[in-house]
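Board notes, transcribed. Complex of a protein with magnesium ion.
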Amino acid sequence: PGRGGGRGPAAAAAAQKVCGGAGAGAGAGAGARAMVKALILVGGFGTRLRPLTLSVPKPLVDFANRPMVVHQIAALKAAGCSEVVLAVNYQPERMMAFLESWAEKLGVKITCSREHEPMGTAGPLALAREVLDDGSGDPFFVLNSDVVCEYPFKELLEHHKAKGGECTIMVTKVDDPTRYGVVVMDGEGRVERFVEKPKTFVGDKINAGLYILNPSVLSRIELRPTSIEREVFPKVAADGRLFAMTLPGFWMDIGQPGDYLVGLRLYLESVRRKSPTELAAGEGIEGNVLVHPSATVGAGCVIGPDVSIGEGCVVGDGVRLRSCTLFKGTVVGAHSFVEGSILGWESKIGAWNRVENLTILGEDVATKPELLLNGAVVLPHKEVKESVSQPKIIL
Ligand code: GDD
Ligand code: MG
């Protein structure tokens, strides 16, 4: 508080809070040309994805067999990004420990920029300014951590350069714009208005939470908790320097269980179009299904559509799975039925269970045989011994 405009010693000291670091060969092959950097906003406690976020921070929750944020980092790398800063406000050590092997695998340098109080969606940029503004003048990407799409970052970079604005944001069309930031643009893609969570109808194009920004925008952001949507974008738009690119393909904010499963369906549809060989095929598979190579599926199962089965999962004989996801190490007992549900890591479903209607199991939950779980939200490490016939939270 009261630290002023984000320039000078305060900002420099704050930026040194960047901790950790992982990733081999990030600069390999970069030659003399500086490579684009990215900052991913991974703050917040992910309360709407509890009980999954009781075990790991939201960006590390699995989505289609990889942590959510890994999908983003892989896409950034594919677009030529060499260094990713994760803006976090809790558990940076946990995040780094978890991502170290991914950094190696993807060949990206990953660091954490730690906030000691939540800095909102713009404050973290001021905090990491020394990293983001390396003097090259190159723009950098900024991402909300809870959005899934095909991440066309190369196209975004090209669009940004072609339009010559200060910031370019990706936009997409949704049915209920009131939950998002609404963008009104002209025929050229220049943003005329940006209104965060409008109460009345402004338009149906919304901010997809993926941006590319010139370093000059950092001088508009003070080192304090502040919102890029409410305090930065409206001003850049007023100066005529904010542009929008319509996102091709699907988009979803997966920060809530229902939306998470819709996002999974859309993601698998996109895998079907782009790399169908990644999907399972054969007897008993219906529609789009992802099965980790280390998982085993019993005899006489019917799986799909819209299912992902994670690493080391064991699906018993005669199981029926539809629109659901099994995180790493989950076991589904023989002749059980699972639909519209998320089964957290290492869960054990007994035989002859019926699990449905947005049931969410935290890590290491076990159920007795012959139970009904209808909309049950079960906290980690519980054993469920009785049916849950109406949606409720099992403590
Ligand atoms: N580091 C850090 N610190 N990150 C934060 C903080 C913070 O204090 N607060 C929020 N974030 C991160 C969240 O983790 C998320 O990745 C991103 O910033 C956006 O926050 P949400 O809480 O998910 O916002 P939203 O979903 O209500 O709205 C945002 O996303 C919509 C698209 O899903 C806005 O950007 C909207 O304009 C946009 O339409
Ligand atoms: Mg969100």
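The longest strand covers residues 205-213. The pocket of guanosine-5'-diphosphate-alpha-D-mannose (ligand 1) is lined by residues 41-44, 87-89, 115, 118-121, 124, 144-147, 180-181, 196, 206-207, 209, 229, 253, 255 (CB under 6 Å).
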